[in-house]
């Protein structure tokens, strides 16, 4: 069994899970408003409340919004050293980290957006903030937050250029320009789009390799 405690001057929450497997379903216990806030934050950032205990505890100790609302998390019960470790998948990254790995934001842009977001953290999720402020193409946010929807639309079968146009990363005209260049000099479309300055090489790699798996999650290993 694992029990983690988050405390502030006003409230105390506990995250509880039974079992010793690599992934455990955690339940948040405490006042309704704070429980809903933390559950939504964890699900948006890590994709689920079924998590590796060590991974969850690390998130609670490092997430800026958790740190802004609570003191450092405590292990009330359970041995984190004995918790089975699992390789951190793309799906379990925070939304900001996903956007960075996809080449949509660089680290400096992400850090500035997190600073800008802080005054709204109690009323908006980070994804809502980005959507309302048009900082990221809405299609990109939809893909990262609800990849199963794109699986239904045949995401895995689409070519790189089609994916990039659909995500709002490039225009159809920019794709045509890259395809014309490919016909004249050869090369990969993603590399040519980056060479033309339309996308970053990171974005080209992400959309070349990312797949939606049978669980409706994104499979991707950053290089």
Automatic annotation (TrEMBL):
Extract the SUPFAM superfamilies matched here: EspE N-terminal domain-like
Q: Which InterPro entries match?
A: T2SS_E_N_sf
- Going by the entry's taxonomy, the superkingdom of the source organism is recorded as Bacteria
Name the chain's protein.
Uncharacterized protein
